[in-house]
Write a structure and sequence with these properties.
single chain; alpha+beta; two-stranded antiparallel sheet; 3 helices
């Protein structure tokens, strides 16, 4: 049903077309892309084989800092589509408003009111 962010990458265009949904949990850029170091997250080393982790849903900056611009080449399928949707969604819809369900905080896991 969905391709996880840490699952194998599709090997062909046909395989890409068969993916109905991706889990937008993390994104990686090539280690040699200059902006990778700027956006690098310090956790997630277990998946460093995908590149430099530049975004994670569980980081408190996840909805506020979206790595951009993306490299022209070398970005895997899941990372490309995750960051594409986040970037252009923010452009289209604007910044996420604060509410009782989304409070600006440095703690990702806060109880609802």
């Amino acid at each position: 049903i969905q391709r996880r962010d840490v699952s194998s990458r599709p090997g062909t265009k046909q395989e890409e077309l068969g993916i109905d949904m991706i889990h937008m949990g993390r994104a990686w850029w090539p280690k040699d892309y200059p902006l990778s170091a700027y956006y690098m997250h310090t956790e997630g080393k277990a998946w460093s084989r995908f590149g430099t982790q530049v975004w994670c849903k569980c980081n408190y900056t996840a909805s506020d800092i979206i790595p951009w611009p993306m490299p022209d080449t070398g970005v895997d399928f899941q990372s490309y589509h995750t960051l594409y949707l986040l970037h252009y969604g923010r452009e289209y819809f604007g910044a996420l408003p604060s509410s009782k369900y989304r409070k600006p905080s440095k703690r990702y896991h806060e109880p609802y009111p």
